[in-house]
From TrEMBL:
The gene is LOC107031703. This is Inorganic phosphate transporter 1-4-like. The keyword Transmembrane helix applies. It is found in: Membrane. Belongs to the major facilitator superfamily. Phosphate:H(+) symporter (TC 2.A.1.9) family. It is a multi-pass membrane protein.
Length: 538
């Protein structure tokens, strides 16, 4: 019934036009900023250790203590999880557009504030940095359900998957931009303020001006978010929210007439009929009816996102440790502070350029051709294969002659994460749930993902430590080593492959058919006809 509304049908069959690409850029710039802000911290943590935790006479440069490192790396994830749940719920209550601007302003303010972290002691600086990064994460969290829902509700049936995936693919450019900004800033400061290696002059290797480097890198994230704010405020509310949740079909028809540049009738009599026939579809999130229709779907979207992010974020955040372990980045004591930032950023940018960014855009190209289910299953399968291929002969890959091979294999795991579940876990929850619960359910699925990211970020930090107590990083207990950690991640990917079977294929179907929003309405319409003698349009 709902998808017989002319305004929704017009959206489903609309040809790809300028407003689709405008929506991708406006929503995508939020994700560009999200990825930049979440991943740039991994490029400056070693610098923070040198600046604030230097010990005179130590053979190695200062590093963040385990609890501080876990907090700096993980606190934004805690904020993101909270933001996904809160703004997901708020997006269904207040409307997508009203909440959309709030998340962006939080991101702009907290990006700048992160770079202005202050304090007379290392503990003071780290505490204020963690405080602002929590709230930065809170704003970022809101962008997940809102961007996905807005794009899915604006898109047509034929290319909806590609449009939602394109919004998410802006993450790849955000990661790339984070690396490039770190390279440019560190290279500029390195050229302006030359310094010896740590082993030559421990104190002189970290110039005082290096304190500006990490601040500039973190604050840069505010620029793309700030540029997008005006355009977000100009976007109309989505027609599906206005018509199906707010029940204002006249406003939905007016908004979409301007956007699609076609005449759309308001059809007030259909709204009246739907309002009367809506009883069967007024169930909430915590009801038996939701459990019957969508319980397994929500379990599928949440569990696959949870399992994916354990592997994805532990790989991404700790790339620099893996590169150091195989010798791709020289030992810390042979470099000065700015040189270390430069080399970590260069390695991460190379991985992003060669595997991360292409993987996202492969998904955009193929998601509406081979479907979400096939891409997700294939991605988890190859991530499992490559993770075990890295882990089982791990000693072989650490030998100098085979290091390039290790990086190539490692890049393939990233490629199939992005041409696979990292994109599809974002797309599907925006398609398969009813309009009035769509943002909330996407927020729950995304929050499960961030819970997985925290397991990856905190767990891998400890797990990857060598088993020999004499070889661990300062302050860390012995772990299970990189090899065993990679085996665990391979098993996690295999579980993700199994849980994918709970997720339905959504390719080429209208949102109302997928969410079964018409189910139960036809019977109620028939009852209205029989009891009132009125003609109710179908």
């Amino acid at each position: 019934m709902a998808n017989d509304l002319q305004v929704l049908n017009a959206l489903d069959v609309a040809k790809t036009q300028l407003y689709h690409f405008t929506a991708i850029v406006i929503a995508g710039m939020g994700f560009f900023t999200d990825a930049y802000d979440l991943f740039c911290i991994s490029m400056v943590t070693k610098l923070l250790g040198r600046l604030y935790y230097h010990h005179d006479g130590a053979l190695k440069p200062g590093s963040l203590p385990p609890n501080v490192s876990a907090a700096v790396n993980g606190v934004a994830f805690c904020g993101t999880l909270a933001g996904q749940l809160f703004f997901g719920w708020l997006g269904d209550k207040m409307g997508r557009k009203k909440v959309y601007g709030m998340t962006l302003m939080i991101m702009v303010i907290c990006s700048i504030a992160s770079g202005l972290s202050f304090g007379h002691t290392p503990k003071g600086v780290m505490t204020t940095l963690c405080f602002f990064r929590f709230w930065l994460g809170f704003g970022i969290g809101g962008d997940y359900p809102l961007s996905a829902t807005i794009m899915s509700e604006y898109a047509n049936k034929k290319t909806r998957g590609a449009f939602i995936a394109a919004v998410f693919a802006m993450q790849g450019f955000g990661i790339l931009a984070g690396g490039m900004v770190a390279i440019i800033v560190s290279a500029a400061f390195k050229g302006a303020f030359p310094a010896p290696a740590y082993e030559v002059d421990a104190i002189g290797s970290t110039v005082p001006q290096a304190d500006f480097v990490w601040r500039i890198i973190l604050m840069f994230g505010a620029i793309p978010a700030g540029l997008t704010y005006y355009w977000r405020m100009k976007m109309p509310e989505t027609a599906r929210y206005t018509a199906l949740v707010a029940k204002n079909l006249k406003q939905a028809a007016n908004d979409m007439s301007k956007v699609l540049q076609v005449e759309i009738e308001a059809e007030p009599e259909k709204v009246a009929a739907i309002s009367e026939a809506k009883g069967a579809n007024d169930f909430g999130l915590f009801t038996k009816e939701f459990l019957r229709r969508h319980g397994l779907h929500l379990l599928g979207t949440a569990s696959t996102w949870f399992l994916l992010d354990i592997a994805f974020y532990s790989q991404n955040l700790f790339q620099k440790d893996i590169f150091s372990a195989i010798g791709w980045i020289p030992p810390a004591q042979t470099m000065n502070a700015l040189e270390e930032v430069y080399k970590i950023a260069r390695a991460q940018t190379l991985i992003a350029l060669c595997s991360t960014v292409p993987g996202y855009w492969f998904t955009v190209a193929f998601i509406d051709k081979i479907g979400r289910f096939a891409i997700q299953l294939m991605g988890f399968f190859f991530m499992t294969v490559f993770m075990f291929a890295l882990a089982i002969p791990y000693h072989h890959w650490t030998l100098k002659d085979h290091r390039i091979g290790f990086v190539v294999m490692y890049s393939f795991t990233f490629f199939f994460a992005n041409f696979g579940p990292n994109a599809t876990t974002f797309v599907v929850p925006a398609e398969i749930f009813p309009a009035r619960l769509r943002s909330t359910c996407h927020g729950i699925s995304a929050a499960a993902g961030k819970a997985g990211a925290m397991v990856g970020a905190f767990g891998f930090l400890y797990a990857a430590q060598p088993t020999d107590p004499t070889k661990t990083d300062a302050g860390y207990p012995p772990g299970i080593g990189v090899r065993n950690s990679l085996i665990v991640l391979g098993c996690v990917n295999f579980l993700g492959m199994l849980f994918t079977f709970l997720v339905p294929e959504s390719n080429g179907k209208s949102l109302e058919d997928l969410s079964r929003e018409n189910e139960g309405e036809e019977e109620t319409v028939a009852e209205i006809r029989a009891t009132s003698g009125r003609t109710v349009p179908v």
